[in-house]
């Protein structure tokens, strides 16, 4: 994927600290945004599938895990 320029507004002290430590703010921001997007996609998926997840959890609570009774160990 290519890279694009964006503008971010940061707290002055945060930016100064990052610069003084030689941190790459672009890479750090990219990683943080990527992590936040992944967490939000997961949260949305869980919310959209809450009924199915609850149904499966109830089935497992009642009947146990599928195929568990066929274990040979």
What does this structure look like?
The chain has 73 residues and is an all-alpha fold. Helix content is 64%, strand content 0%. It has 3 helices and no strands. The protein has helices at residues 12-20, 25-48, 50-63. The mean pLDDT is 93.
List keywords for this structure.
elongated; mainly alpha; single chain; 73 residues
Topology:
Layout: H1 12-20, H2 25-48, H3 50-63
Strand content: under 5%
By secondary-structure content and strand pairing, the structural class works out as mainly alpha
Poorly predicted regions: none
Tell me the major beta sheet.
Answer: none
Short recap of the structure:
With 73 residues, this protein is mostly helical. Helix content is 64%, strand content 0%.
